[in-house]
Amino acid sequence: xxxxxxxxxxxxxxxxxxxxxxxxxxxxxxxxxxxxxxxxxxxxxxxxxxxxxxxxxxxxxxxxxxxxxxxxxxxxxxxxxxxxxxxxxxxxxxxxxxxxxxxxxxxxxxxxxxxxxxxxxxxxxxxxxxxxxxxxxxxxxxxxxxxxxxxxxxxxxxxxxxxxxxxxxxxxxxxxxxxxxxxxxxxxxxxxxxxxxxxxxxxxxxxxxxxxxxxxxxxxxxxxxxxxxxxxxxxxxxxxxxxxxxxxxxxxxxxxxxxxxxxxxxxxxxxxxxxxxxxxxxxxxxxxxxxxxxxxxxxxxxxxxxxxxxxxxxxxxxxxxxxxxxxxxxxxxxxxxxxxxxxxxxxxxxxxxxxxxxxxxxxxxxxxxxxxxxxxxxxxxxxxxxxxxxxxxxxxxxxxxxxxxxxxxxxxxxxxxxxxxxxxxxxxxxxxxxxxxxxxxxxxxxxxxxxxxxxxxxxxxxxxxxxxxxxxxxxxxxxxxxxxxxxxxxxxxxxxxxxxxxxxxxxxxxxxx
Length: 513
Hints:
- The protein is α+β, with helices and mostly antiparallel strands.
- The protein has 15 helices and 19 strands.
- Helix 6 packs across helix 10 (about 315-325).
């Protein structure tokens, strides 16, 4: 028995010392959640339809280039909706040639070819793949933007099919960060066919008052331009995906601007766009708004790049550089939920949570010592060790302590005391049946264990579901509850039994003397 007690003592001391080392100092080792530290909590919806739209635009441009290289007659290409476009003016005599091209280069698309018209639609499986990839890419893009912005210990994770949860503790300028996250940063270069005009009626005057099939009406960003309306081509020749480098620069008036260069393929398309449209305007669109519409005076070589200007402030130019370097979001973002918590409110929550915890602990300890005397002191010791192990585990797993997490700590304390009560009552019952103290202690622990284990196991299972499907503070509650219950099994059963064994052994030695 002496040998058995030695390894139990060593194991207990090692775990307690390890927990103290891990948790000290608690201000540096224990991460606080938004409700305690302050910050913002966002639930974002990824508008995956935008990703389908961009894919469609790029494929239209690619197909037009391939048709031109194959000398296939074509009058025009029109986007019907995201994921579907039509070709008009095909030569029926070249049907075989057209089918061969589509079969070779457009395997992800279904098509119907009737006479002079072809309808091309993205396959359903590919649509789902693009939607899924759009959410994953949005997740990584948002993470990269926030990392470049310098937010400490952010939480960014996918939630469901098309949602993303973002938690940013300790943010001093939440509006700037929200704008940084939300900006889709879809850059597009589109040929201007008319504008700017003060209203749509004036804009479409030369087009019979109707928008041509291959065009769309876009408003100018009033912050960057004089506003107004532009008639631009529906398909973007060059997009933000073609950018190779982005940096802060200045325009010819020494105002903040953003300079860029392009990859070889995008640069070639940009060079072609400028060479074929000298003397015409090309609109630079950011998130569907015209930032500027410069006139092309000469061909811009593919290696030269250009400048995005639009009366930016220095901070706006810096943020745009961060956004473009991190990559454009593959789709728009919609805020479904937003919570901003100030640091002063977090400090109040900490004080109130600690006060509630201390009141709970002192009340429980007082009751146990008053009702069970020395056995109650045993339970109090186990309870203190339980709290030490819990905070050591929180520090080790880098778990976040939230206000509901404090509630989880208090609940685990209550369940730890409940376990001690079960054990003590079983010991009293066994001793009342005439068994020795040592035998009563051993039987009390063994017979109460199944009830303690079952109650802890069912609560842990519930907490696992909360962790799996909950968000933010609910996860914090689940984590502290699970860790607290695991610590409870160790302290209420193992450590408490060890204390009883040591006390009984010491008493027996004293009686033998």
